[in-house]
Each structure stands twice: as structure tokens, then as C-alpha cells.
Amino acid sequence: MSVDTQVQRSWFEDVMVPCYNPMEMIPVRGQGSVVWDQQGKEYIDFAGGIAVSCLGHCHPVMVEALMEQANKIWHLSNVMTNEPALRLAKKLTEISFAEKVFFANSGAEANEAALKLARRWAKETHGEEKSEIIAFTQGFHGRTFFTVTVGGQPAYSDGFGPKPGGITHIPYNDLEALKAHLSDKTCAVMMEPLQGEGGVVSPDPEFVQAVRDLCDQHHALLIFDEVQTGNGRTGHFYAYQELGVTPDILSTAKSLGGGFPIGAMLTTTELAQHMKPGVHGSTYGGNPLACAVAEAVVNHISQPSVLQGVAEREQWLKQGLSGLNDKYGLFADIRGKGLLIGAELNDEWKGRARDILVAAGQHGLLLLVAGANVVRFTPSLVITQKEIAQGLEKLDQAIASLV
């Protein structure tokens, strides 16, 4: 194939497994919160690679870290350790409750490790009977068979044969259902401290506290899936820090690497001892390239000025969405925390979230959905006020085209 051959979108149907239905355009370059396609058309990025591009595209601190490490060493496997992994792990323990870190390549892998640790701990400290995992309907924890089964969306886990057992789903924020199900046979409760894929749903403060108390009462572990909420997304480095409830295990990924694939499971020394050599592992987990980039991302995001800026940007975006709602009357609710925002459509617009996403793309704006009725916004944590204003203008045009 000639190097001059223009890559065509039609190739997707020819050569890719049809798990996805990507947009017709192909992005080729990004800078900050702006992306350009093959034809040079400009797009404002309110999607952030699904809450991944926390510093936007090609941020200097990430580029510099990657280039510096690329000239040192790329891969070792866990037969050896490496400096970037140790520095990153040390940093993550300094800014969280955690004392120990396990590195993986994705949120699903971090959650897989968390669930395996919980089961292992329960077996070794309480016996085989203590194995139930409680999770929540509309939750999302990844696409491995274990994590997709724990996630509370059957459409993602049905159709693959017998599922892993011992998993109970209850409604999010339903305290009475939790009290009715949680028992001494429960080994862990897994929850998002703000549901993302399930519609951008915040937990009631009393519910989160009750989950912690009930776990303590029944000697069960509390696992927080902070794959989407972590790394400054809500305005705190981790969402649990604002909720005032500390989990026993925390998973993080997505924006941890700012676009470079990496995930991590954080926990305590007491729990970590149950993951002895040979019990779990990952060939690429702790990869020097990934950890070097993630270290630069974490160092930048954890600065107070960046975290405080998230709250400011949340207000800019919510105020703009509220103005569009005054104009078009399409949202029943505008909710979320920090720069994980969901706009739920009202009855008149019900089921049209993807229509808005497609129209936005045609008008030069990248968006997300969270189900058929929620438009989701997860832009860069350092997106400028000008870029937010430009994106909202394009969203205005997109909605007008659908009226």
C-alpha cells in the first residue's frame, strides 16, 4: 500500500470487528480541546475520549514525559520493576487513602483485580461461604466477563453463556434494598461514587455513608469504581474525598494516563497481602511508558489550581446548558459533578440523545450519551472558557437543526 493512500472511513466495515459504530469523520490531529479531521474541519471536544483526555490533546507535560521516557526504556514486564512505576505508585499513595498499588492497562482490568482481591480476602479470612458481591443496577465496571456481569446492565452481559455467580444487583440509592440484601455472606459492595454510563447519577450522601456502615457491620469490603470519576474529574482528585467515605479498594483508569492506556487498583497493606506472587498479574501492567505519562498527568492535575478550576468550568458549562434549555425546553435535569455532567432529556425529547450527538458532530462538536435519554459531557479539565463558549454555540446550532 502506498504511503500516499488516503485512509478511508469505509475501511472500517472492511477490516474491523463491528463492535462499534464510529462517526463518519476521522480525526487526525488534536490540540487542547480542539480536534481536526482529514478534511481540516474543526471540532470542539466535549467528549474527551470518554472522560480520558483530562488535559486535552497533546498537552506539553504529557508529550514531554512520553518523549523523555521513549528514549530510556519502553517495556520490562513484572519480572523487574521500574522507576516510573515506583514513582507513580508512591504519588498515588500520597494523595489517597491507599498504601499499595497494582497497575493494569484499563479500568476493566483494575476492576477485575479489585473483585479478585475481594474474593481472595474473603476466602482466606472468612471462608468459602463469604463470596457474594453486591453491585447496582445501571452500574458499569468494564467489559471482561466478570466486570460486565457485576455491572448492572444486562444488555452488556447477556448472550455469552453462563455468567459468574454470586452477584446481586440492587437499585442505586435504595437504602432499604441494600439493608435487605447485605449480610455476613457478602464479601464486597462495588459502586461508582457517581454513576457515569448509567445516566450521570449522584449518590445520596446518607446512602453512601450507610453503604460504608453496613459493610463494616457485616465485615464486607467497599470497592469504589473511580475509573470515570477519579483523577480530578469531579473537582477532587478522587470523588470519595468529597463524600467523606473511604473505600477499602479503589479502581482508577481513563484519565489516569490522559490518553495513554493505564489502570490501577489502590488498596491497603492489610488487604494487599492476600495478592501473593503468582495470584494475579499483568504483562503490561506498570509499563514504564504508561507510568511516566501518568506520573506527569497526576502531578499536573493534583495541583490545587487545576482542581479548583474544575468547579469553575462546571459552572460555565452548566450555565450554558441551562441557557439552551431556556431557549429550547429539552432538558428535564442538568446534573453531575465537576466535568462529569449529564443533561437528561424531557418527555418531548425522550430517546433522542443519539440524535443530538450525531447533529452535534455535524456542526463541529464532539459529545457523548449515557443511555438513550442523557447527553453526557466529559471535556478536558483545563478546557478554556472560549472553547466552552464555542462548543455551546455549536450545540445550539445542532439542537436548532433538530427542532
TrEMBL record:
Pathway field: Amino-acid biosynthesis; L-arginine biosynthesis; N(2)-acetyl-L-ornithine from L-glutamate: step 4/4
GO molecular function: transaminase activity
Binding, N(2)-acetyl-L-ornithine: 143, 282
Protein residues bound to pyridoxal 5'-phosphate: 107-108, 140, 225-228, 283
Primary site of residence: cytoplasm
Record text on subunit structure and interactions: Homodimer.
The protein's Enzyme Commission number: 2.6.1.11
NCBIfam families: arg_catab_astC (TIGR03246), argD (TIGR00707), PRK01278.1 (NF002325), PRK05093.1 (NF003468), PRK12381.1 (NF009047)
Cofactor binding description: Binds 1 pyridoxal phosphate per subunit.
Residues with the N6-(pyridoxal phosphate)lysine modification: 254
UniProt-listed InterPro entries: Ac/SucOrn_transaminase_bac, AcOrn/SuccOrn_fam, Aminotrans_3, Aminotrans_3_PPA_site, Class-III_PLP-dep_AT, PyrdxlP-dep_Trfase, PyrdxlP-dep_Trfase_major, PyrdxlP-dep_Trfase_small
Signal peptide start-end: none
Gene3D superfamilies for this protein: Aspartate Aminotransferase, domain 1 (3.90.1150.10), Type I PLP-dependent aspartate aminotransferase-like (Major domain) (3.40.640.10)
Note: May also have succinyldiaminopimelate aminotransferase activity, thus carrying out the corresponding step in lysine biosynthesis.
Superkingdom assignment: Bacteria
Catalyzed reaction equations: N(2)-acetyl-L-ornithine + 2-oxoglutarate = N-acetyl-L-glutamate 5-semialdehyde + L-glutamate
Family label: Belongs to the class-III pyridoxal-phosphate-dependent aminotransferase family. ArgD subfamily.
UniProt-listed HAMAP family: ArgD_aminotrans_3
Identification of the protein by name: Acetylornithine aminotransferase
Organism: Vibrio algivorus
Entries under SUPFAM superfamilies matching the protein: PLP-dependent transferases
Keywords from the UniProt entry: Amino-acid biosynthesis, Aminotransferase, Arginine biosynthesis, Cytoplasm, Pyridoxal phosphate, Transferase
Cell compartment(s), UniProt: Cytoplasm
Cofactor(s), names only, from the UniProt record: pyridoxal 5'-phosphate
